[in-house]
Amino acid sequence: MDDLRQIIKDRLSKTFSGNTQEVTARKLNTTQGNVSKWVNGTQIPTPDMLLEISKAYKVSVDWLLGISEQREIDGLVVEKLTYEHIARVLDKLIENNTIEIPDLVVMANENGLSSIAEDDVEDEEESITKESVFDPDYIKIKDRLLSYIMRRRYKLASIDLEMFDEWKEKLNNFQGLRLLAYNEKVEAAIDYKSPAQFKDGDWVELVRYLSTMTTEELHQLVEELKKKDGTN
């Protein structure tokens, strides 16, 4: 029992390390005194409370009890990821148009900057030719929903850790939602639907709807939205 108490104490301390005891107590709907006893090893959480901790912090009950070394329950164990795996994932996301490595020259021109890639003077009028420059350090998220999710992450993380935890919890709203095969028509359909006003449920409904459409249906939808918007 003493060994189990020590294991749970150590693993709860690691689990709660990003929060104060007050924040942890609020997240688990318990008292700060209980949290203090758990991390001090003077009390072991009940089975029901271990389950609540598992849900709130996305850690395995077996890991908390020392039965397993698999800490995470969502499959994202950073220590087990490899560079090959991440590179393959990024490559697939680029192929799917979910993300892109932007042309820095194009970006510079769009932003009124002309000093990024000046090459040889081409003719008598001294027009400047510019070759494409792709830098993998600059990754652009093209998928509107993924961009929305990540923008909210940084917005909430800049406020406080508790808000960041709320962002993690709200990721459950998108659980099981398949990644869209992204293209200009999908992007146009989303943009015409005014996503600036969207809540999570609106995003889920739209993405599910778009994922069922054929290329022809998607084209027809965009044309209808253009007419409605008066841009056709």
TrEMBL record:
- HTH cro/C1-type domain boundaries: 20-64
Which top-level group of life is the source organism from? Bacteria
What's an example of a GO molecular-function annotation for this chain? DNA binding
Question: Which InterPro entries does the record cross-reference, listed alphabetically?
Answer: Cro/C1-type_HTH, Lambda_DNA-bd_dom_sf
Q: Which Pfam families match?
A: HTH_3 (PF01381)
Name listed for the protein in its UniProt record: Helix-turn-helix protein
